[in-house]
Structure formats: C-alpha cells, structure tokens
Amino acid sequence: MVRRKLNCVLAFTCVFTLASAMVRAEVAAAPATSAVTYRKLDLQPIDGAVRGAFGPAIGAAFEKEIEDDFGEVTKIPLKTEQIDLGRMLFYETRLSKNQQISCNTCHQLDKYGVDGESTSPGHKKQRGGRNSPTVYNAAGHFSQFWDGRAKDVEEQAKGPILNPIEMAMASGEQVIQVLESMPGYVEAFKKAFPDDKTSITYDNIAAAIGAFERKLITPSPFDKFIAGDDGAMNAEEKKGFQVFVAAGCVTCHSGPVLGGRMYQKAGLVKPWPDIKDMGRFDLTKGEGDRHVFKVPSLRNIAKTAPYMHDGSVHDLNRQVQMMARHQLAVELSPADVKSIVTFLHTLTGEIPTDYIKPPKLPESGPNTPKSVLD
Fold first, then answer.
1. Is the pLDDT confidence value at 2 over 70?
2. What is the pTM of this model?
C-alpha cells in the first residue's frame, strides 16, 4: 500500500531530478577557479506541492499503511502476540552462537536504533564492511540492507542470525532447536501463530521480528509541519527546509521516510573519495550498479552518526557538504550547510520508550545449548 501511494511523490521527485541535472550541467560548464564558488540558492515558498512530496505523517496514518503492507506481503495480520514475541526475539542473545549478540546489540533501540560504530562487532569481534543502519522507520523502505538484497524487514531479519561474521548460527534448524528447548518460547509461538501446525519455523521467527519492527516509528516535529501545523517548526528550521529543497536534496530524500525509495550511486557527479565497496554490483554484477547503494532515510539523522555505507563520515555538517558536492555538484556555503542541518534536527522523533522496554525472556531449558565462543 505504501508503494501504491508514492505516485505523486515520484512525480515531484522527477521535477527535482531534472532541476538537479540542470544545476550539474551549469556547474560543469562554469570556468574552473582556484577558490570555492558557492551558488546562491533560489529559495521558493513552501507550498502544498512541497509538503505533498513527503506523503503522510509517520504517525497513526503511516503506521496503519505499513501494517496493511505487512499483511499483503506475508498474509498474516499484525497481531499483539506476534509483536510481543518479536520484541523478545529482538533482545534474545541466545539466537547467536556465543549467546552474547542480539538484534539490539547493533541496533540499540534506546539510541535511535544504532550502536554509534562505523561497523559493528560481531562473533569473535569480527566486523563486516558496512555500517549498521537504524531499524526505526525501516519498514517504510522499499528494500532492506545497503544493497537492497532483502525485500522487507521480515526477510532482512533472517540474514544477521546466520551470518558467520554477525550472530554466526549454523543454520535455521539450529535456531529452531534453541527456541524449542525453552518452554516459554514454545508457548509464545503457539499464541502468535495458532493456525500453524508447526509454529516455530524460521519464517515465523522472521515474521515476529518484522511485526515488532513495523511499529518502530518515530513521529517528529516535521510530521506536524507536513500535516499543516506551521507552528511545529520555527523560522530558521523552515528556512533550512527551503535550502534543503532548493539544493536538490529532495531529489533522493523525499517520501514518508525522506529516503529509502531508490538506489543511487555514491559519487553521482563527482567521484566519492576512497570508495572501495562495490555496492549493488556485488549482488547484481551489472556494470551500472558499481558503487550504487540504497538511499538511506534522513529520519533521526542527527542521532544516527556515523554516516554512509561504511560509516566513514562522523560529522553531520561534513556529510551534508559532501553529499551536495558529490551527488548534486553544488558547493554549499557554510551558512547553507548550517541551515540544512538545522532543518535535519526537526526529523529527530520520539523514541517509543514503553514499546521498546526490554521484556523478560523465557528461561533456558535443560536441553538449551550452551554458548560457543570459538
């Protein structure tokens, strides 16, 4: 349902794509100078069309849409019992080989869904090559992982548990064996999936985690503004929004989660410095996918450093400046960078503290496997 409602957003985005292409051509044609040249941005009034490019607020209306989308994908209604089970599984370290790592280890819910690391430590302190993105509002993305290899949060949940660098479980069967050894989980799965002859399956583990994650949403002052409350943002924040739009950032960062709706090359108009990750190319082997990644959401961006697929940028001001330079061929003045960052702070939402409270987990049974550290 979310995808079907993006037509107006995409149409709006196309306008800015064309505008940004014109800007890039203009900058490319300009004579080279030894000094940095800042382009004066044409700030237009914020009207209904601009507000419409960001879709519904991410509160109750958007929450209902992602619930409906979950039902369409899995054919399983989103139920309280599934959400409660998913919350337990999200915090469950016994889903890892060394019984020290859970989903929450890398996606800390009390820290806006990140761990603050460039790349996260996994089994035996191994580190992968990509930054762990926030799980907040992730259900609103059109695909999961930086390279988009999972179609939704349910499919994404299956990956880290079996990844030898992350949670390092040997197989889905081993995960099922662990959960079946604990009477508390046996009962919880029966309640969550009462119509299934075998309730503890790897698909149902992922479905439960996904059900929990689909309610990890963070309404922000920007949502109130988009819904028509002009008092939700002050004059400086509104100006920052105008600079954000005029610079062309909205080309990729539009829609309900301000991103998460397309793939884009890192270094679209100017090569990204020191980039080694091949992005979607490793998945598709298509030449056009070299250094291409999913566009991240900007929600809670002020709280989720470091940035980029490799976590190589730690300062938000620098990230904004680099994105304008390498993606749009726009040199932002320090004042414009500051203005955009001021706007980006309005995307910091409220953490649902009651919803993310760590639950009491089922006790291990006599046959529950012990941790394996090697």
1. no
2. 0.89
